[in-house]
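Researcher: Next entry in the queue.
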Amino acid sequence: MLSFEDYKKISKQAKYHDSPMLSFTGGEPLLDPRLEDIIRLFDTRSMLVSITTNGTLLTFERARRLKLIGVDGFMISLDGSNSQANDMIRGDGVFESVINAIQIAKGLGFFVMIIHTLTHLSIKNNNFNGILNLAQKLDIPLHVSLVSPVGNLANMDLLDDYILSNEDILYLEDCQKKYPFLRRDLDGNYFQRGCPAGVERFVISPYGDVMPCTKIQASFGNIKDEPMIDIRNRMINTKIFDNYPLLCLAAEDDNFLNVYMPRTFNRKDLPIDYNDYFKGSL
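Model: Structure for this entry, 282 residues:
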């Protein structure tokens, strides 16, 4: 895994290239006992720093310490609008912990956002509507990330129940017109709307592999072996990531879903080399 010295190198590169935003995600980043020391390596005065968390470990004291070292906001995961809907997925008591974490973070002046993985099933059973109403009641933004066949869903047979249909996408667009606090994974870019994978954003795994996003398990290089700007430029020069596509490739593009995503199914050595992931199209 990345050592503390590796994170020092990343922080220096981020400062040199004026990286505007740093986000710690997981798994669960609050489980890492080094997290606060790692954050201190970065120039938090010149970049936005956020943490994506399930909220269960965000105590008042922990949040206060994170505020003092420059964390700006929290993306707090939620799968249901009440205890019954959320905790059947996340575990007993998690919904209550999420609400408590939101209240703590808001009280300390953090920017707080609910993040929800949107599925066909979530729309069909009205769970998504419930989360919209909850976000409105809590007066915080709701960010939706479209589900993809990765992790426990890395199986094409599950697509009909989970991957959004064209009707679902249209419904999401209508909801965005109705609820101004609702945003999706195309809306948070610096330059223009569209998929930011590989152009404005990339992900560094705990082992140093650099990927376009968490859903596209293709390594374009390792931060331990070469500068991150060289790896990022390699992504930009890959045709598929050079033009802000107006859809999530790993969730909405039929060709991407059927050709590329299955190449990581049943693999234990993730991420795979980008040349293998995009074989035949580079």
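Model: Strands lie at 21-24, 48-53, 73-77, 111-118, 142-146, 182-184, 203-204, 210-211, 218-219, 272-273.
Researcher: Noted, moving on.
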